[in-house]
Amino acid sequence: xxxxxxxxxxxxxxxxxxxxxxxxxxxxxxxxxxxxxxxxxxxxxxxxxxxxxxxxxxxxxxxxxxxxxxxxxxxxxxxxxxxxxxxxxxxxxxxxxxxxxxxxxxxxxxxxxxxxxxxxxxxxxxxxxxxxxxxxxxxxxxxxxxxxxxxxxxxxxxxxxxxxxxxxxxxxxxxxxxxxxxxxxxxxxxxxxxxxxxxxxxxxxxxxxxxxxxxxxxxxxxxxxxxxxxxxxxxxxxxxxxxxxxxxxxxxxxxxxxxxxxxxxxxxxxxxxxx
Length: 275
Hints:
Order of helices and strands: HHEHEEEEEEEHEEEHEEEH
Number of helices: 6
Number of strands: 14
CATH architecture of the largest domain: Roll
Helix content: 10-25%
Oligomer: single chain
């Protein structure tokens, strides 16, 4: 009976990993509400971004001078300059010199046109700005301008399995995608206490505390990440030493019960000897 009672106390008092699932009861969110929140905004260009810009048209010979890394030889052929790459930032990203770096003033140096302010704009707005700068001043045909953001990346640190810098190839990344890239949260990660550090195109910074248990996080403006977001998963103090641990009060109880059991055995032994 004593063993059974002790076992029950142990099972009831073990600090098992709790609150592990994400987005509890997310299936209860109305479909129309979830659909309305699924629109993914285009990234806003900011200082430090790398842009790949291509200008095309029916007359490519006329468009070639506006494409970085292209030139026209003496025979009128469009050729590419030898392509080289440099390591960009601490992420070790190999970056082609054909890309445009948005400088600290939020500008790029565009061939022939010169300095163009792009920070704070969407890609489509930048494309229109470049098109207006080229046509009709330099070409008789309205060009097609295609822009891609080449450095959409986020950093995940803290209580995750593989902290690091992760890049998106399609200029999109959700919070759950970033966590998955980092190997998911460690069992010691506090799912109700995740910090998101964000820098905006206007130079302002934000810090937000996120709760992955809350189903409404799917509707949050921070569910869809921006380039250069930094995610820090705070360790859960109650699980820091071990995911399964005994309450100190229970340990003391076990010690007392064990002592009482030993004492009872001793008394029974003495009584048997005295008979």
